[in-house]
Amino acid sequence: MTTAFRRAVSIVGAFLLLVAAMPLGTAAQEPDTTVQSVPPAESATSDNGEKDVPYVPTVKSVVRKMLETADVTADDVVYDLGSGDGRIPIMAAKEFGARGVGIEIDSALVAKARQKAKAAGVADKVEFRQKDFFNVDLSDATVVTLYLWPEINIKLRPKLLRELDPGDRIVSHDFRMGEWDPERTVDAGKGNTGWETVYRWTVPETVPEDLMDISDEPVN
To answer: Which residue range is the domain that position 204 belongs to?
Structure first.
């Protein structure tokens, strides 16, 4: 047996004796986190997990094109579903004289939108509600703006056709509404995702039954 090997055996033996002398369970004891752990603070954006669509802001030139495509006037009430930082209702009020309503589930974005409306001087003409847009009554709207996934547009279509009045307008940034063909397709110019498109629909006097039935369209 070499000197180096005898030294290694001695070190291992000393370590084993030290472990044996420790109180039972100390060597393998898990750190006690019951006192030290603190539950994460509930932030203003803690409700982000419920969003159907991630927030991607629309550039102002495309916002303006959406409102122009919808022929918004001072007589309109513009509902923006998934309103983010409020830029569409704010521009509708500031540049077109309309009343704006933003529906947004993220509390931090709702707070930001209210601040921006106040800074823009239109806080008396716009409001922002922290709600799920599937659970909001849209009957007061004359214009609805969307920047949502195609499948969300399809799921919303029966609600829009049921709650809006004939002649009310719907405009969507980049995404269509399934089998309901748009009456107008507009090149909106360059935006955050390249060259972008705005689609427009008008609620008809008589809604075809097939537009209310989304059972055979991709909504998942």
So the answer is: 49-212
Q: Looking at residue 202, which CATH number applies to its domain?
A: 3.40.50.150
pLDDT in tens, 79-131: 999 999 999 999 999 999 999 999 999 999 999 999 999 999 999 999 999 99
> How many domains are contained in the chain?
1
Residue 187 lies inside a defined structural domain of this protein: yes
The pTM of the full predicted model, rounded to 2 decimals, is: 0.76
> How does DSSP assign the chain, residue by residue?
--HHHHHHHHHHHHHHHHHHHSPTTSTTPPP--TTT--PPP--TTGGGGG-SS---PPPHHHHHHHHHHTT--TT-EEEEET-TTSHHHHHHHHHH--EEEEEES-HHHHHHHHHHHHHHT-TTTEEEEES-GGGS--TT-SEEEE---HHHHHHHHHHHHHHSPTT-EEEEES--BTTB--SEEEEEEEETTEEEEEEEEE--SS--HHHH--TTS---
Asked whether residue 43 is domain-assigned, the answer is: no
- Report the pLDDT averaged over residues 52-76: 92
Residue 191 lies in a domain: yes
Average pLDDT over residues 24-30: 37
Residue 1 lies in a domain: no
